[in-house]
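TA notes, week 10

Several of you asked for a full example with nothing omitted. So below is the full record: structure tokens for the whole chain, then the designed sequence directly under it. When grading your own attempts, check the secondary structure regions first.
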């Protein structure tokens, strides 16, 4: 007998029969399987009852949902809530009717976004509510809110799935609507909402409607315009501080929303679900209002009493654009508004460069002298002064003295390697010019 066969027989003989697992009899699986099938059969009956209740008029469509309608397409049915805001509606202190696609194009240009020739009616604002923030294919957007301008109204449409099997129908309706628009605006949607929806369209084997649309994420201009002056750039924080909009008690905090939805799925009713719809409406309308406010910020002249750090941020946004001359006035207004360090030094440095670019050489040098006299070392200050003596005065010796003073100030700064290299290179070049002049 082969050694392997002997070993196998010995192992079988040594193993107790109790250790060998017997296949479970099929009839032992029947009770749990029957229970599951009974549960699944009961859900369509409950859904039918809900649909009958929803079709009844008057009265709310569903006990747990705001007034809306059940809409069907080849993929099934889903729930839709529609709200219209008049053109003169104010969200906080911002009137929605002032939205301009031309001003939006200017904001996008300053943010170095690709141009998008979208009309007012071709711009869509979008926000999702999901089953969590964990990411991956397991996360589902159960509520998608979109807003857009149509005639003299701002239309708000919310697509809701009453269970996960309604997602394909919801995505189909959303995709059909998105085909009407050329630009979608979100808040942190580049990292979250749009990639999530694109994944869900792919999983549902439906065409991705975002493929042919431009996308503008308002989180990035918000950070550049207001992070210095307001810190938090969460939408809820900015709508409170910039738009003067306060959410009421009927709004459900974002962190609670997944739990509220799962509670609804389990019990077919949740007293807080209406607050989720309200939260989504506030997010979309606040996004539209914040976009209008950002457009105003870059197109209108600021007021002298504006927050100095907001003025600084706007100037910093403009000084590297074709509108750099506007930033001079903004920096000057920010400086007059009692800026604190390090923003005051950054403002003076920017002004010294901008004055020189505008041809105001003497004013640029005056700012450089302030920077050199400051306790904190300023490479731009010493470079600007050296350029002034070399190019304007033709005084190479004074230019060398300025650079040497800067190098002495940097002797004890071990972490300022780059400024040392730059100033030393300038010093060598000036020395060569001085020697050529002597020879």
């Amino acid at each position: 007998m082969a050694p392997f066969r002997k070993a196998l027989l010995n192992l079988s003989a040594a193993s107790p029969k109790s250790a060998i697992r017997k296949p479970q009899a099929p009839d032992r699986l029947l009770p749990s399987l029957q229970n599951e099938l009974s549960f699944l059969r009961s859900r369509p009956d409950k859904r039918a009852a809900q649909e009958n209740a929803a079709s009844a008029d008057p009265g709310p469509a569903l006990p747990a949902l705001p007034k809306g309608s059940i809409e069907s397409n080849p993929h099934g049915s889903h729930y839709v809530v529609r709200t219209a805001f008049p053109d003169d509606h104010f969200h906080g202190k911002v009137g929605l009717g002032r939205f301009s696609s031309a001003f939006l194009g200017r904001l996008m240009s300053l943010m170095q976004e690709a141009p998008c020739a979208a009309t007012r009616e071709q711009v869509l604002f979008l926000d999702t509510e999901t089953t969590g923030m964990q990411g991956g294919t397991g996360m589902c957007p159960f509520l998608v809110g979109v807003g857009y301008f149509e005639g003299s109204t701002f239309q708000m449409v919310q697509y809701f799935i009453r269970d996960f099997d309604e997602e394909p129908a919801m995505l189909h309706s959303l995709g059909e609507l998105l085909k009407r628009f050329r630009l979608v605006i979100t808040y942190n949607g580049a990292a979250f909402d749009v990639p999530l929806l694109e994944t869900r369209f792919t999983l549902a084997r439906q065409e991705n409607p975002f493929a042919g649309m431009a996308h503008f994420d308002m989180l990035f201009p918000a950070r550049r315009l207001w992070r210095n002056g307001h810190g938090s750039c969460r939408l809820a924080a900015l709508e409170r501080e910039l738009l003067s909009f306060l959410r009421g008690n009927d709004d459900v905090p974002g962190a609670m929303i997944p739990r509220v939805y799962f509670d609804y799925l389990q019990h077919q009713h949740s007293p807080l679900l209406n607050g989720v719809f309200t939260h989504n409406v506030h997010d979309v309308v606040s996004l539209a209002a914040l976009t209008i406010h950002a457009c105003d910020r870059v197109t209108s002249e600021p007021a002298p009493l504006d927050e100095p750090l907001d003025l600084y941020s706007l100037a910093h946004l403009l000084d590297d654009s074709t509108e750099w001359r506007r930033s001079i006035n903004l920096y000057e207004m920010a400086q007059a508004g009692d800026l604190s360090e390090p923003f005051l030094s950054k403002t003076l440095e920017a002004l010294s460069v901008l004055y020189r670019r505008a041809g105001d050489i003497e004013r640029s040098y005056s700012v450089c002298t302030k920077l050199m006299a400051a306790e904190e070392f300023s490479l731009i200050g010493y470079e600007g002064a050296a350029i002034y003596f070399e190019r304007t005065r033709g005084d190479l010796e004074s230019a060398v003295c300025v650079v040497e003073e800067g190098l002495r100030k940097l002797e004890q700064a071990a972490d300022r390697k780059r400024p040392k290299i730059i100033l030393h290179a300038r010093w060598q070049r000036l020395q060569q010019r001085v020697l050529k002049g002597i020879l």
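The beta strands are 69-73, 76-86, 90-91, 94-95, 123-130, 141-150, 153-160, 183-186, 214-217. Use that as a sanity check on your answer.
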